[in-house]
Here is the input.
Amino acid sequence: MPDTPTAPDSDASGASPAGNADPAPDAPTRELAVSDLTGERRLPVASSDLREFLPGLEPERHVTDWGRSELVEGLVDRTIYDFLYHYWFRVEVEGIENVPAQGGALLVSNHAGALPPDGMMIAKAIREEHQRPRPLHIIVGSGLKGLPGLSMLITKVGGVPAHPANVHRLLFDEHQLVLVFPEGRNGTEKPLKDRYRLRRFDQWNFVEAAMRARVPIVPLAVLGTEEAQPIFAHVSLLRRLTGLPRLPITPAFYLPAKLRVRFLDPVSTEDFGEEPWNDPALMQTLTADIRALVQENLLEMVAERGSVWLG
Amino acid sequence: MEAIIGVDSSDPRHELDRTEFVRVDSQHGLIRRIVNAAAIDTVVDTRLVVDPMAAPLGEAHQSNAIGTANILAACAGGGSPVRKFVFKSSADFYGCEPGDPAFFTEDMARPHPPRTAMERDIVNAEGLVADFAARNRGTSVTVLRVASGIAVEERASHLALLALPIVPTILGFDPRCQFIHEDDIVGVLEHTVRYDLPGVFNAAADGVLALSEVISLLGKPMLPILPPWGTSFAAAQLRRAGLRVPVEMLRQLRFGRGLDNRRLKASGYSYRYTTREAVVRLRAQQRLRPLLRSGTQPYQYDREVEDFLRWSPSVQALQADPPPSQTFGDASRAAPPLASYDDLGGEEVIEIVASLEADALEALAHYEATHLARRTVLAAIERSLSRKRPSGAAS
Here is the structure.
């Protein structure tokens, strides 16, 4: 056998007598931005666009590559979510049209309650009210991945562990809807007396994530979760003994507070020049602006509310 | 390609077709002599032990640390003929932690220090290869981080676990797992040898399955017998009962791992099997194994016989008259130039074309022109011919 060519393209240039559409003996080797082996950690936006090489869908499967299970999610949706959404919390939704019907978008919400129902109710709201119901991927603290039972269940119904690469892949590569709670654990540990006062949006550099993925941010305000599962106090001794992430004194099940979800106008992340995430001042300003927007709407909704339980 | 030389410290378990075999330990002096004597330009190193079941710990460390250093030493240096070095590493390079991303890309450094001796070996070996790549700029170095393989005869902890009639899992966890079929491992190695692909590449099939999905595809019941707390203690009891579940495997059973395989796909490789298809094939193999095991003798490599067949002058006569399935001559007989040629699609024929000799190409062109006469195939043959015979006008 003669020597096999090292690169199929390099020597084909001079020898193509047929000259018509080149059927390329093998797919061409692309120029890859892999120069060294010890490449430091960077997000794939800088390298070439690999979106077209995402694995295809296999119709035989009922579980996505993220571990989300159609069957489990459908079952939970038809039973628990349905009950909570329609009868327990009697969710009212405003501005659902602000959730884009296609393409990636990063939803940013306030977060409250010991085991907050806001994530699942937002997902259910999109499924119920949106003209084009789309699955919502909820970013959950990566500490949950170590918990038996809960980690399994949360993954199956659409939770994704918090990691910048996960968010980027969902938003940029897969054009999905992603929900983050930038208050993170601080929001869920907030005692009842601090209700509707947002904690700092510092658990998540969500503005940078949206900018890198070039998707809009949709802020939203959820009213009622503070009362649905109020936290009266924390018992740190028990928490340390059990190793659970938190152990608050709280009702064992959700109280039937009226829930309102308001989706606000999308914030574009396009017009900030080249690689705006390198400008920390801009990042902080935008984060503070979005937090102020959510806070403002939340207070407005509290003021309009007649009763905690009846809305 | 003129010659393939296989080097191993034990005899091959498969019949070698055209590979010449040298049995040698990874002493760099000897390997250096082989490399220089045969003027080897491409070295493929698949020797790294990445599973605790494949070899005892001490032996594995010996091979991984010292063996890698020796082979790299044999390939390094100004006078070395080696132009390409392909190193088969493992996805265990990334480890397995709760804070991991769902899909590791090649650029991600390992987020945590290695936990076990095996992982430390893999990370160190990759470090040695990276050093080698930095020092020998003229050599193109490819590192393949290969996911857990689905292979019939391999000894690996995940295969041993999945071969049990009831698969034990950790209560409360359903990790994501990703495999690669053995055909694809070979295919990826061939792809990296054929094309110039310096850098690191993940090799894992499309699709990341939940463990429960894998087990139900295998048609087995799943038994969450390992407790979420005190798992290693329970695993120690299991070991006493005869089932060895290594520490790496326990972490996999808890947290799972996914790889982003798109860089390799972007380089032109297309996987033959998805993870799901690989698992389905594993099921077929698992069901057939008890039937096949009885009656067939394992292949025995016999050096004297091999040497005789290869080098004795009396055998030469046989080789000059090869069996008919391999002839490329005589196109007038209108027999297909390759067995089952007519079954191949245009794309597949085009893939073969690059590896054929000029004579065979002419025969192929004749056959194609008189039979199916696919335009793309003819053009590909034409191009390949003119490349191989720059002087003569093609046909």
Remarks:
- Residues 70-304 of chain A form a domain with the Glycerol-3-phosphate (1)-acyltransferase fold (CATH 3.40.1130.10).
